[in-house]
């Protein structure tokens, strides 16, 4: 009976295992293939794979590109160095459990993933295109990314996508790096590579021919690469360098899912560039955000050893303090490649110390030693004890800073950074430190003298201004006292005329407008505001006011006072409610005036003329 139950249970298990697991449209089983002309789209329609030809080429390649981007942008190519000359290509799972690109009659394997899956039945393998752009080969029953049998993210092309790792795996010795296309029409392996240089203090580098340094980012300082501030974290994406016993890799992630971002290693006939692009929906085009190398100072070792490069100076290369050009003639001819040498050589004697440089890209880290448990002070003490140590710095500047890195070879590829960089302490002979101290003392004296001179000049200027204003105010008081009639201030006049309101305008003549006003005692006044464009000086105006004030008659309007303040010159008259004589003589209805009024006016006019 027990044996029967065992047989039934075993049969049940076999039935479960034999059931087919449903395959989605973004997957490919061992019995399926993708032929030229057909494509496979990721689950969220972010990426698409299939065969394509570059813009000016008839060769066919199997690759992955963005699905929603209107301009076909390829991010990964399988058969980079093995193009297909016709449309007979197909991609499938081969009999050995690899992803292969073959011609349609399976006679030639054009490309293979060379994965290891010998212990898994081929019928249980699937190919899946993820929404990250990663093409994976896995067991249909296992979705754990750590157990992928193969993935395209381990074999970058010229494009670095978010989530893709660049770096080293300790167990396998695998090095993931980018490599440029030969040109925009040829995806075969180009001359430039970008990856992580495996040292005790890792940094990213662009190499030519896989061995010659072309660009160096500077080491990772806990926040960013010391010489690449454009690659620092922001609100849209952030970078990270992971360094542990199992692996060392560089990765970036996009925090805003609406942003489409890619990093591309490009190549022209003369140079290579690492460029970051973002897709702009409004213009349906890629926008270039960053391109490195940025300028001449990003060229590796442009200035040689013991020198610094600063793009805003002329020449761009300068020897460090206490150093001089190895070849003065070459240096003067702008060939700085031989660098500089010490003016006073080190002999590990007492009195040697360090000169601090701030805001620099740290030197090439080849041959450095790192102790992440030391602080900066301990680092300096240990460097000074070791006669071979030529410089030191903090290995991590995040937080309050920690760790120690020491250099034992020539200091190469230092750059002065603008608003970034780190502190570097360079070992100097005792005599150089003394001369540097004297130089700083002289500089301090010069600075103090300049400050004293500036302060003295400001004091003299202030005193002069004070005396001038005092004299001017005194002169104004004396001038006002010369008048024998009241002098009104500007505030009083503005208040009386409602700040020269339009409704108070009585008329305007060649010398300026006349406004009606009312003083605090309800006395009505007429204010003649002389034009500011008048060329009449103060003395002439004063004489005129004095003359008018003395010229009084019963038929003349009375001058009450004046106002002189700043550029304002005003005469204050009594207000004539019945207007002036000319308003009655020269009106159009003069013939209809009453005879008595006419006689009175004429009588007054004759008296005025007599006067």
From TrEMBL:
Q: Which residues form the Bulb-type lectin domain?
A: 25-150
Write out the GO biological process terms.
recognition of pollen
**Gene3D superfamilies per the UniProt record, alphabetical:** Bulb-type lectin domain, Hepatocyte Growth Factor, Phosphorylase Kinase, domain 1
Q: Where is the Apple domain?
A: 348-429
Q: Which reaction does it catalyse?
A: L-seryl-[protein] + ATP = O-phospho-L-seryl-[protein] + ADP + H(+); L-threonyl-[protein] + ATP = O-phospho-L-threonyl-[protein] + ADP + H(+)
Q: Which residues belong to any copy of the Protein kinase domain?
A: 500-611
Q: Which N-terminal stretch is annotated as signal sequence?
A: 1-18
Which EC class is the enzyme in? transferase
Source taxon at top rank: Eukaryota
**EC code(s) of this entry:** 2.7.11.1
What keywords sit in the KW lines? ATP-binding, Disulfide bond, Glycoprotein, Kinase, Membrane, Nucleotide-binding, Serine/threonine-protein kinase, Signal, Transferase, Transmembrane, Transmembrane helix
Where exactly are the transmembrane stretches of this chain? 444-469
Keyword 4Fe-4S annotated: no
Cite a single GO MF annotation.
Answer: protein serine/threonine kinase activity
What PANTHER family does the record point to? BULB-TYPE LECTIN DOMAIN-CONTAINING PROTEIN, RECEPTOR-LIKE SERINE_THREONINE-PROTEIN KINASE
- What protein name is recorded for this chain? non-specific serine/threonine protein kinase
């Amino acid at each position: 009976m027990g044996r029967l139950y065992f047989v039934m249970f075993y049969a049940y298990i076999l039935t479960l295992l034999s059931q087919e697991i449903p395959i989605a449209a973004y997957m490919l089983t061992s019995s399926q293939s993708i032929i030229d002309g057909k494509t496979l789209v990721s689950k969220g329609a972010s990426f698409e794979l299939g065969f394509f030809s570059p813009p000016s080429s008839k060769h066919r390649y199997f690759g992955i590109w963005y699905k929603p981007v209107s301009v076909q942008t390829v991010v990964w190519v399988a058969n980079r160095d093995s193009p297909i000359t016709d449309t007979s290509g197909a991609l499938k799972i081969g009999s050995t459990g690899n992803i292969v690109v073959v011609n349609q009659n399976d006679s030639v394997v054009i490309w293979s993933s060379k994965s290891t899956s010998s212990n898994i039945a081929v019928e249980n393998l699937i190919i899946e295109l993820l929404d990250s752009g990663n093409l994976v080969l896995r067991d249909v029953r296992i979705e754990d990314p750590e157990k992928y049998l193969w993935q395209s993210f381990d074999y970058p092309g010229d494009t670095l996508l978010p989530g893709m790792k660049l770096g080293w795996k300790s167990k396998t010795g695998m090095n993931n790096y980018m490599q440029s296309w030969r040109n925009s029409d040829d995806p075969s392996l180009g001359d430039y590579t970008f990856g992580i240089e495996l040292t005790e203090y890792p940094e990213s580098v662009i190499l030519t021919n896989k061995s010659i340094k072309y660009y160096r980012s500077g080491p990772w300082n806990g926040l960013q690469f010391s010489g690449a501030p454009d690659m620092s974290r922001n609100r849209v994406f952030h970078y990270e360098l992971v360094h542990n016993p199992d692996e060392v890799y560089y990765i970036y992630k996009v925090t805003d899912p609406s942003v489409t971002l890619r990093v591309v290693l490009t190549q022209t006939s003369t140079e290579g560039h690492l460029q970051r692009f973002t897709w702009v929906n409004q213009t349906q085009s890629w926008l270039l955000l960053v391109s490195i190398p940025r300028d001449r100072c990003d060229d590796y070792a442009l200035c040689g050893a013991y020198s610094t490069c600063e793009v805003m100076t002329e020449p761009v290369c300068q020897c460090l303090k206490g150093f001089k050009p190895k070849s003065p003639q070459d240096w003067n001819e702008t060939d700085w490649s031989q660098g500089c040498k010490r003016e006073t050589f080190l002999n590990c004697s007492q009195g040697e110390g360090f000169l601090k440089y701030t805001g620099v890209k740290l030197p090439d880290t080849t041959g450095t030693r790192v102790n992440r448990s030391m602080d900066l002070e301990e680092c300096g003490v240990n460097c000074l004890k070791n006669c071979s140590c030529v410089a030191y710095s903090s290995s991590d500047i995040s937080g309050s800073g920690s760790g120690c890195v020491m250099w034992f070879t020539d200091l190469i590829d230092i750059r002065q950074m603008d608003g970034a960089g780190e502190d570097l302490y360079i070992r100097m002979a005792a005599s150089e430190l003394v001369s540097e101290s004297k130089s700083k003392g002289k500089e301090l004296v010069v600075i103090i003298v300049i400050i004293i001179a500036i302060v003295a000049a400001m004091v003299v200027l202030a005193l002069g201004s004070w005396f001038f204003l005092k004299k001017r105010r005194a002169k104004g008081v004396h001038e006002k006292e010369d008048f024998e009639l009241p002098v009104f201030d500007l505030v009083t006049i503005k208040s009386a005329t409602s700040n020269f309101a339009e409704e108070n305008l009585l008329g305007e003549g060649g010398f300026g407008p006349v406004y009606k006003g009312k003083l605090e005692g309800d006395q009505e006044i007429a204010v003649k505001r002389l034009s500011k464009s008048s060329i009449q000086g103060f003395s002439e105006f004063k004489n005129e006011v004095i003359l008018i004030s003395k010229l009084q008659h019963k038929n003349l309007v009375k001058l009450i006072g004046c106002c002189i303040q700043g550029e304002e010159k005003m005469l204050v008259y009594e207000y004539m409610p019945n207007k002036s004589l000319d308003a009655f003589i020269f009106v159009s209805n003069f013939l209809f005036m009453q005879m008595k009024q006419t006689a009175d006016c004429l009588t007054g006019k004759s008296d005025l003329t007599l006067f």
